[in-house]
């Protein structure tokens, strides 16, 4: 057992624990919240300059006083919850009271949130101490985390490469052990692509599982959702349980007890069927090495007793892309058109945002209706597939991490990408489905770069999905527990 003042190795050990182990140690009084905060702040000082994942860092003295208050409460027999005294950094698209919400935009730089978002509030209520924010691309657009406010977030495995996005800061911070668990959000793979690029877990929850308070439309699009990222499935489940739960102001939120998502998990039933979509019979361009790596990961499921079969959905994948473009442009324009229409602010938007808005404001109601009809046909197709399969599998990304100086991949395997996000088309089936989608570490490719495999499950079937992921985690520990070279060669960063 580790006790207060237990030697020079303690800080490094603290940041190596996952959130579940850290919570146990805090509540058992093996370590103090002050020791935890000091360990994390020191580690961030060493590590963050290398990757630039955590931004808007709060003052150390203030954070240590907050940690002292958490220690005092424990002395009095009080705990705020699972995250009591645990450092967290909220994705910079989400409000956390007293912290800036820049969304990576010079137009919003320095804007201080007056209240917590619903998700941040639930995490704070459970005891999280917010040390800052995690970096994100401007307005979350694009799966590469760079912006003109804070710069680019680098990949912990090879810092010259991208950490993905838009939850790239969160994923890189997790991989570097600067956070024990992290929140993120996902519209177009933003919990899955960075999870794959950083060898961590990311879970896009079912439509309505994690409610978001809106000042606008509570009934439309529902393309984006908040969700958890973690280095272990148990942490993933525990953070999801905190984030989830109905709210009266969010009429489409799922009215189920979020405690049902908590571990421990029973062993998944033998014979679970996984349909391997892969590259959709060549429709999806894939960088060399990705498909074989994911098929190796599927072999882990087979060793667990799952049945894996190739499947091609009876749906034109290009129609899904057409639907997605319309619904995404409608969403982006709905959020940002007022900025774009202001001549004094338009030039501050990055070109990709302007491209989305220009097309979004030109859409007709009938185009949006048709896009939703296509989406509905896709869900009907999935329902039919789920009569036989328990899960559908695809790679989490179509490329391995690419150079940070590249705005986005313009070509994959000799095929040109016609938009700034076409290279992430593989996430569209999951995003449009409204079903839970988990990204699991799939191992490392020929150049030593991480990749993930995503599983799409039935709507609201998160617990069964987490149980299967937990079994996979135990069987694939060889690569799931790997550390970036910086940790192995030079110590932490």
Automatic annotation (TrEMBL):
InterPro entries: Amidase (IPR000120), Amidase_dom (IPR023631), AS_sf (IPR036928). Residues 35-466 form the Amidase domain. Transmembrane segments: none annotated. It comes from the Bacteria. GO terms for molecular function: catalytic activity. Pfam families: Amidase. PANTHER family: INDOLEACETAMIDE HYDROLASE, TRANSAMIDASE. NCBIfam families: PRK07486.1. This is Amidase. It comes from Kushneria indalinina DSM 14324. The lineage of its organism: Bacteria, Pseudomonadati, Pseudomonadota, Gammaproteobacteria, Oceanospirillales.
């Amino acid at each position: 057992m580790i006790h207060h003042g237990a030697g020079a190795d303690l800080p490094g050990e603290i940041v190596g624990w996952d959130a579940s182990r850290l919570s146990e140690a805090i509540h058992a009084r093996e370590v103090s919240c002050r020791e935890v905060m000091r360990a994390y702040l020191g580690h961030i000082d060493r590590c963050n300059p290398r990757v630039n994942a955590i931004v808007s860092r709060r003052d150390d003295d203030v954070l240590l006083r907050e940690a002292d208050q958490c220690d005092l409460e424990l002395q009095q027999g009080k705990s705020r919850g699972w995250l009591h005294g645990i450092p967290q950094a909220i994705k910079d698209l989400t409000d956390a009271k007293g912290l800036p919400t820049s969304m990576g935009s010079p137009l919003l730089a320095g804007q201080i949130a007056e209240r917590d978002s619903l998700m941040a509030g639930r995490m704070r209520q459970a005891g999280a101490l917010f040390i800052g924010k995690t970096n994100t691309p401007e307005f979350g657009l694009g799966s590469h985390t760079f912006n003109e406010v804070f710069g680019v977030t680098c990949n912990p495995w090879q810092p010259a490469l991208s950490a993905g996005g838009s939850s790239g800061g969160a994923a890189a911070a997790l991989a570097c052990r600067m956070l024990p668990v992290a929140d993120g959000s996902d519209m177009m793979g933003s919990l899955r692509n960075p999870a794959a690029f950083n060898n961590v877990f990311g879970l896009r929850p079912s439509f309505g599982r994690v409610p978001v308070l809106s000042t606008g439309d509570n009934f439309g699009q529902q393309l984006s959702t908040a969700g958890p990222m973690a280095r272990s499935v148990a942490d993933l489940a525990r953070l999801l349980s905190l984030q989830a739960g109905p709210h009266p102001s969010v009429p489409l939120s799922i009215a189920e007890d979020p405690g049902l998502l908590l571990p421990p998990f029973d062993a998944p039933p033998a014979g679970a069927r996984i349909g391997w979509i892969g590259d959709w019979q060549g429709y999806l361009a894939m960088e060399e090495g990705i498909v074989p790596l994911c098929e190796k990961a599927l072999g882990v499921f087979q060793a667990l007793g799952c049945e894996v079969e190739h499947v091609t959905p009876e749906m034109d994948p290009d129609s899904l892309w057409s639907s997605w473009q319309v619904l995404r442009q409608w969403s982006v324009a709905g959020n940002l058109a007022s900025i774009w229409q202001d001549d004094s602010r338009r030039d501050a938007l990055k070109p990709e945002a302007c491209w989305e808005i220009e097309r979004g404001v030109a859409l007709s109601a009938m185009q949006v209706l048709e896009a939703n009809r296509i989406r509905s046909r896709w869900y009907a197709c999935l329902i039919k597939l789920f009569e036989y399969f328990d899960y559908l599998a695809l790679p989490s990304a179509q490329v391995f991490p690419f150079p940070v100086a590249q705005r986005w991949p313009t070509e994959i395997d000799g095929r040109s990408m016609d938009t700034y996000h076409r290279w992430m088309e593989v996430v569209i089936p999951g995003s449009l489905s409204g079903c839970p989608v988990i990204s699991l570490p799939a191992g490392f490719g020929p150049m030593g770069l991480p990749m993930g495999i995503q599983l799409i499950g039935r709507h609201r079937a998160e617990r069964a999905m987490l149980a299967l992921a937990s079994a996979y985690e135990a069987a694939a520990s060889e690569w799931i527990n790997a550390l970036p070279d910086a940790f192995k060669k030079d110590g932490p960063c």
